[in-house]
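[Help] Beginner question about ligand-bound structures

Sorry if this is basic. My supervisor gave me a protein sequence and a SMILES string for pyridoxal-5'-phosphate and asked me to "get the holo structure". I don't really know what that means in practice or what format the answer should be in. Inputs are pasted below exactly as I got them.
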Amino acid sequence: MRFMRESGLALRPHGKTHKSVNIAKLQIEAGAVGICTATVKEAQHMIGAGIPGVFLTTPVVGSQKLETISQLSTKASDFKVVVDNPNVVNQLSTLMQKCGASLEVLIDIDIGPQRTGVNSLPDILDLAASVDNATGLKFSGVQAYSGMVQHIEDYHERLVVYGKQLDFLKQACLELEKIGLNPDIVTGGGTGTFDIDRKAGIFTELQSGSYCVMDVQYNAVQLLPDVDNPFSTALFVSSSVISNNASGFVTADAGIKSFAMDGPPPKIAQTGPADAEYGISGDEHGKISFKDENTSMELGEIVELITPHCDPTVNLHNYFHCVRGDTLVDIWPVDGRGVI
Ligand SMILES: Cc1ncc(COP(=O)(O)O)c(C=O)c1O
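Answer (accepted):
No worries, everyone starts somewhere. Holo just means with the ligand present. The predicted complex, written as C-alpha cells, is below.
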C-alpha cells in the first residue's frame, strides 16, 4: 500500500492469488479500494462476504454465468466486469434491463500478451461506444494486463518489452478521450510490473496479486531497479520427514500434489539443515538431499517449502494455517477454490 500511496494510485489487489475472504478483508483494511477476482465463483464469495469494490477481470461468456453477474450486481452496486466482445455487451445489457440495476463495465485491451482483450484501436473504440450506448451498462474504463512480462527477471529488460505495450495502452486512452469516452479507471499490472506501472502515468489503479505471499518465481524477479525486493514470502507448504533410512537424503510428505508444478522446484525456507535441498520425488513425496552424507533429519521434523507459483498452489489446498512464530493463530478457508 505504501508504494501506491506514494504514487497517488489505488490498489485493487488480485484475489485470484489467495481466493480468501479473510485476506481480502485485511487488504481492504490496509487501504485497498476493492478486490479483483478471476472467476465468477471468487466474485460470489467476495461479494457474499461484503467485500467492497469487486472487479471480475476475466471476460465471461454463457447465459448462466452472465445471469449470475447480473444478480451479483443487484447485491453490490460497485461490482465491475470486463468485456472484450460486442455480443456479450448485448447479452449483459438485456440481463441488466431485466433486473433493473446498472453494471460498471471496462473494456479489456490486449496490449501484447494475446490472451484476452481487444487488440486494435478501432475495435477498442467501437466496443467502448457500444458499452456506453447500452442500457443498464456504464462504461467505466479499460483494463490492460500483461502476464507475459511479469516474470522477466531483469528490471530493465522488462521495462523495454513492457514499455512498448504501455505505449499502445496510452494511445488507446487518448483515442477514447477524443471520442468523449475518457476512461475513469485504467487498471492493470501485476507484482512483476508494479514499479513500472506506478511510474507510467497511465494507470489509475493496479491489480497486483502475488505480492501478498510471494513464491520462488517472483523471488527471482528484480522488482525494483536499485534495491532489494520489498515483499517477503508469507506462503509455505509445511511437510514432515516420513522416512530417513538412507544416508544423504530423507523423504518428506509433500510432492507433486502439494504444489502447482508450472514453475521452478519448491525451495526449502529457513528450516532444517543449511545444506538441504528439496526435489520432487513423486505424487506425495519429496526428496531432501544433503551435500554432507552425514547430515540427516529426524522423523516428523517439519520442512517448510516456498511454493514455485503461489496462485495455482493455493488452489490445491482447502485451508491456510496462519502462524505467528511457532504458534498457530487461525485457520482460514480457501473460499474460492476451483477454476470456474
Ligand atoms: C488479469 C490479472 N491481473 C492481475 C494479476 C496479478 O498478477 P500477479 O500475481 O503477478 O501480481 C493477474 C495474475 O495472473 C491477472 O491475471
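A couple of things worth pointing out: The radius of gyration is 22 Å. DSSP finds ten helices and 16 strands in the chain. Feel free to follow up in the thread.
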